[in-house]
Amino acid sequence: MTTVDDRIRHVGDSDSANSRETIVVSGVTSDSHTWNLVFLQLLVEEEGFDVINLGPCTPEDVLVSACAEHAPSMVVMSSVNGHGYHDGMRMIKTVRENFGARELPVVIGGKLGITGASNSTLSSELTSAGFTAVFDDSADGLAEFRGLLGSLASIAA
Ligand code: B12
After folding, report:
1. Which residue has the higher pLDDT, 103 or 137?
2. Phi/psi at 72 (nearest 5 deg)?
3. Is residue 96 part of a domain?
4. Full residue range of the structural domain in which residue 57 is found
């Protein structure tokens, strides 16, 4: 089985030894919540990355333009309003159409639906649609996300 680490392994291929890698943080299209994005920006910066924070209610074309302009090491999407699954399915389709099947790691987390912290069906459908990883809304989800950032940072170093 392909692991998340396998999927991001190519990231260190570029000559990035002395520069901080960039990660794009984005809300999903319908979601107006912002503190989740501030939280994620601080967390990602703490792990040693530069962050382009696209803010809430991000249109798909803005996300695609940001990825083209900044060539991020990863895209982190966040949803808390309960529409993360539906928005995420649309957004990942657009990202994959523009940036290929697996080249750009794209993850999503937060409150993806309205049924509570963990929903393995939503999670596996989002992964099948093209997300590199899906994190549920729990302390474990955050710890796993932090672990992924650590792997990405060590690959890029
Ligand atoms: C403040 C707030 C608002 C404010 C937002 C202001 C702003 N500028 O952000 C306002 C009043 C505008 C608002 C509006 C709405 N809200 Co509101 N809101 C909240 C509230 C009280 C706090 C959210 C917050 O800021 N938390 C602080 C941040 C730091 O934490 P967080 O958002 O929970 O994110 C954490 C995790 O989810 C996780 N996480 C998030 N994203 C990601 C991504 C990754 C990769 C990972 C690993 C982790 C992760 O990490 C974060 C830190 O632990 C919550 C209830 C609550 N107590 O949580 C409801 C809540 C999020 N809102 C809710 C709802 C339904 C709405 C509305 C749809 C209400 C309505 N009918 O209009 C609208 C949304 C409209 C829209 N278009 O999106 C629901 C969502 C229900 C669900 N998903 O099941 C909640 C949970 C309230 C509830 N219990 O019903 N809201």
Report:
1. 137
2. -70, 160
3. yes
4. 21-73+85-107
Query: Measured from the CA of 111, which atom of ligand 1 is nearest?
Result: 83
Residue 48 lies in a domain: yes
> Which pLDDT band, with edges at 50, 70 and 90, does 9 fall under?
very low
Q: What is the distance between the alpha carbons of residues 56 and 37, in angstroms, rounded to a whole number?
A: 8
Residue pair 128/88 in contact (Cβ under 8 Å)? The answer is: no
If one counts the domains in the chain, the total is: 1
Select from 98, 96, 99 the least CA-distant residue to 131: 96
Residue owning the nearest CA to atom 20 of ligand 1: 33
**19 CA distance to ligand 1 middle (Å):** 34
Name residues contacting ligand 1 (CB within 6 A): 30-36, 39-40, 76, 78, 80-82, 107, 109-111, 114, 135, 137, 141-142, 145
The reported pLDDT for the residue numbered 152 is: 87
Kindly indicate the confidence band of residue 5, based on its pLDDT and cuts at 50, 70 and 90: low
